[in-house]
Amino acid sequence: MKKFKYVTLLITSLLLVLTLAGCGSQPLSSQNVLENDKQTNTITWGVKADQKLIGLIDVKDGQEKGFEIDLAKAITKKVLGKNGKAKFVTVTSQSRIPLLKNGNIDAIIATMSILPDRKKVIDFSDSYFSAGQSILVKKGSSIKSVKDLNGKTVTSAVGSNSVENIQKIAPKARVLQLPDFAQALTALKSGQGEAMTTDNVILAGLAVENPGYKLVGGTFTTEPYGIGINKGQGDFKKAINKGLKEVIADGTYNKLIMKWFGNVPGFNYKEVLRK
Amino acid sequence: MIKLLVDNWSAFISGFGWTVLSSIVALFFSLIIGSLFAILEVMPSKTARVIGNIYVEIFRNIPLLVITMFFYLVIPLYVVKINGFTAGTIGLTIYTSAFIAETVRSGINSVDIGQMEASRAQGMTFWQAMRYIVLPQAFKLVIPPLGNQFINLVKNSSVLAFVAGFDLMYQGNAIASTTFETVNTYIVVGVFYLVITLPISYYMQHLERKLA
Amino acid sequence: MQNWIDAYSWINIRFLLQGLGITIFISVISVVLSFIFGSILGIIRYAKIPYFSRIVGFIIDVVRNLPLLLIIFFTYFGLPAFGFKPDTIPAAILAMTFFESMMIAEIIRSGILAVDIGQMEAARAQGMKLGQAMWHVILPQAYKKMIPALVSQFISLIKDTSLATIIVVPELMQHGQVVYGQNPNYIIPVFVIMAVMYFVVCYALSLLSRYIDHRMA
């Protein structure tokens, strides 16, 4: 029986240590993210891993690449100085806000629109990109605009606000939420839905490889993308906004737009250039 | 948490309903398919045994998620249009049937081989002997492990969430991404799953004790 | 057809194999850890220590009856509330270990129960302490009986790692997502090759377990 007592003791003490560890850590609100990042010389960004042109892991070297990745790197250099490091954690539309609130990441730059609902739980930087929601259909489809979606099935991805928008504008549309946008497109191609909807940049990236599909009806919402930051991090937010302004002012921003969206069919990059 | 439950009551309940429906349908069909392949695996014909073996080994050794995605994305492209719920339930059925086949086969094998021989000697055909003598005994032996398979089935039905199958997990994901109450939402989802699985689990433990 | 050829370029396959490596890494670490914790929990439940065994037993039952997907969510999104912020791979290992320990605990407990009760009594009558009898007499036999169940648990662990893709663990399934993120037309070829990779690993393991079973019988 003695041996079991030891085991009991061991487990109880393990639990105790865990609880204490929990109490010991500082609550997130009392930490200063900017100070922490300056000390470690690193900003940890939550980014997309599977979105072409925006944030996609390169299968050759395992590095994240895309417009948002480059922009995050540029802002990091402005905030922390030339040697500042940007660390990337890959997130999904579903996991990004919980991870920010939990403190796994310092900031989200992952095609996230600035929305009143989201503003209740997190803060946003100034908008760094203006996208708009659009629809993608098979060429020759009878769907010409968002109004035609009533009574039709539309595919999209979990956690994006595209779903709520559609439900407001075309309330009779049925929406299927898939785990990622490539699957949403494949579901469209395999006939699970008649159209796919999300932000135009994302759709344009998908349409590149699928010439049989096109964007129709233009954009029917404006989706200003913002960098997500935890509430109560005023200093960090100021620093990010200042960094973003500098990146736009010195022309880096427009260079990045040209680099990633310069020749994407169905997407007019000139509309998103900043002066 | 209570508010979360009240606000999203209808979503949780409909998710619960789809989960239960999918589990029951998948259980029914996987029992039939599983038993058929179990019999194939013990038939005198070598071809039958090989076919049974290939089926069981393939579907036991590939993740359910891969099987389900395959049915959802590929079948509609070439064969027939099916929605996420149907595709998920088919994936679930096939995956589970491979495990049920293994369970039933071990049940058949543990029925004394002399019984099969004796019935054949009495002039029964292989199928008659199977149907009247061996299977009834085998099923009695495998009730507890089959109960566990059913619990696994209910838990595994959460992959329907990956193919927009409207089940509990899918609703949970949708609720979590609009309310941002991630942890609380999943606690509620967990309780709903336990409502189905825990009673079965305790009943099976009770049965096992009774049979032992 | 061109899609299939492009999808199976060496660079893509190599990337998928890296994912498979992570899948196996996570599974091996988790199975070793959950074997240790599972044994402890299983023995506690078997030993019927007043209250304590009951509580442990109840926790085992609850966890065993939840979908693994939920456990993964809790670990990744819930633990940070207690000041512990695991990266994706440690989070996956933690979730898998937690879940599998409970599964293995049940296997261990029934393995012990399957060893003849008379043996325990005989060992105790010889003057052995309960712990000694457990360690030298009961457990070696119980583990032998449990090998097939343990291996099939390991196989399901490898398959279940695919669920961790939901929190973007860089395992096989997630690497597949990245590969078809380059071009959505790769989606079906990628699913086919992933199925083959999982099958090869899991089937090899099940053959191995049958071989061991055969040798011991």
From TrEMBL, chain A:
It comes from the Bacteria. It holds the Pfam family SBP_bac_3. Residues 42-264 form the Solute-binding protein family 3/N-terminal domain. Residues 1-21 form the signal peptide. The keyword Transport applies. Gene3D superfamilies: Periplasmic binding protein-like II (3.40.190.10). Keywords: Signal, Transport. SUPFAM superfamilies: Periplasmic binding protein-like II. InterPro entries: Bact_solute-bind_prot3, Solute-binding_3/MltF_N. SMART domains: PBPb. Belongs to the bacterial solute-binding protein 3 family. This is Glutamate ABC transporter substrate-binding protein.
From TrEMBL, chain B:
InterPro entries: AA_ABC_transptr_permease_3TM, ArtM/GltK/GlnP/TcyL/YhdX-like, MetI-like, MetI-like_sf. PROSITE patterns: ABC_TM1. Residues 16-204 form the ABC transmembrane type-1 domain. It is a multi-pass membrane protein. Keywords: Cell membrane, Membrane, Transmembrane, Transmembrane helix, Transport. The chain crosses the membrane at residues 20-40, 61-79, 186-204. It comes from the Bacteria. Its main location: membrane. It is found in: Cell membrane. Belongs to the binding-protein-dependent transport system permease family. This is Amino acid ABC transporter permease. It comes from Companilactobacillus keshanensis.
From TrEMBL, chain C:
Gene3D superfamilies: MetI-like (1.10.3720.10). It is a multi-pass membrane protein. Residues 20-209 form the ABC transmembrane type-1 domain. Keywords: Cell membrane, Membrane, Transmembrane, Transmembrane helix, Transport. SUPFAM superfamilies: MetI-like. It is found in: Cell membrane. It comes from the Bacteria. The chain crosses the membrane at residues 20-43, 55-77, 89-108, 154-174, 186-208. Belongs to the binding-protein-dependent transport system permease family. PANTHER family: INNER MEMBRANE AMINO-ACID ABC TRANSPORTER PERMEASE PROTEIN YHDY (PTHR30614:SF41), MEMBRANE COMPONENT OF AMINO ACID ABC TRANSPORTER (PTHR30614). This is Amino acid ABC transporter permease.
